[in-house]
Amino acid sequence: MDKVKKVALAYSGGLDTSIIIQWLKDTYQCEVIAICTDVGQEEETDGLEAKALKSGASKFYLINLQKELVEDYIFPMAMIGARYENIYLLGTSIARPLQAKAQVEIALKEGCDALSHGCTGKGNDQVRFELTYKALAPHLKVIAPWRIWDLKSREDCIDYAKKHNINLGSISEKKIYSRDRNIWHISHEGGELEDLINRPNEGMYVLTKSPKDAPDTETFVTIGFEKGVPVSIDGKKTDGVSLLKYLNKIGGENGIGRSDILENRLVGMKSHGVYETPGGTILYAAYDQLKSMVLEKDSMAMLQDLSKTYANMVYNGKYFTHLRTALENFTKEIMQYGTGTVKFALYKGSIILAGKESPYSLYSEDIASFTTGTTYSHKDAAGFINLFGLQLGIEAKIQK
């Protein structure tokens, strides 16, 4: 076993990372620093420091990353319109590089010679964490216990904790669902979801009401943008975290943002999950409407093509790359006229457009109206069609 003196561990306080502290110390006779990142998971953080230290950590960090996640990671992703396989809004994917970046920064500050995480060998997160490590601190050793140790199940982990007198608190033998939550979304896997024939249990949902239980009246919301960045709700300026939390609240109350997804994981298998992204679903819809006003045809087509590349890069953990940065810079340039407002009526799971406007809107009522205006002459269409269809006419003559 390679010699390791000090390890920076991505710590959540859950079952895996609770026992990883002891396992690292037993295996490498090393010091362990536990690093917990607050990305809006709404889990109880009180007592986590005491728990980590009692589990054997020499030091504990709790870092609030919500503002950075929303304004520097989520908003640029939403601006480009990234959707993995045209549906997944990348809730888990977008948070991992930021969490890993914070872990690396503390590791370097503390003089660690290794990084560790609790990701399994089946999931995508191991790739997202470790590609970030490679990008930001390639000289540090990476320790992934789930790829090394002999523990095979949740029950094995609990037995290990009992053997080493590790206090698991409320963690139980059975865990119906595997969940990941942050300020952008919550995901659910496991339980009845592992059999595709089953309908998700209504009691599983955390952020959203069933549409049938949502209010019988519409809820109106207006989102204001400046240069492609959401800056206001109903005419009132607000910061990114407050804006997203408000959209989550009203979206959840109105049954917005549920997705049942069978996705292709990076590691080669299909996985079934249910995602709740109420605020994100509203925000993406608002971006779609804003772009329809301020972008011409070629720019919209280019952004749609690039959004797929961006989504794949985020999903696959290639966040800290020059290409990802270049795509964001391109999007910001394209969206420099993305200023305006979009108004929606939310009703029982539906997002209904209730009006939009922008000082840079490319829509002209004079041109688009069925009533002939002064700008557009119907006669011009004949010459345009003759030129646009010139090649078709040549092919028809020669090939026939």
Description:
The chain has 400 residues and is α/β, with parallel strands linked by helices. It folds into three domains: 6-175, Rossmann fold, CATH 3.40.50; 179-295 and 335-357, Argininosuccinate synthetase, chain A, domain 2, CATH 3.90.1260.10; 365-399, no CATH class. 41% of the residues lie in helices and 20% in strands. It is built from 13 helices and 14 strands. The protein is elongated. It starts with 5 loop residues before the first strand and ends with a helix. The mean pLDDT is 94.
Fourth CATH level, the homologous superfamily of the largest domain? HUPs
Strand order of the largest sheet: 3-2-1-4-5
From the alpha-carbon coordinates, what is the Rg to the nearest angstrom? 25 Å
Put simply, the count of helices is 13
Q: Percent helix among the residues?
A: 40-55%
Distance between the termini: 76 Å
Structural class by sheet pairing and helices: alpha/beta
- Please write the string of helix (H) and strand (E) elements: EHEHEHHEHEHEEEEEHEEHHHEEHHH
CATH topology of the largest domain: Rossmann fold
Strand elements, count = 14
Mean residue pLDDT: 94
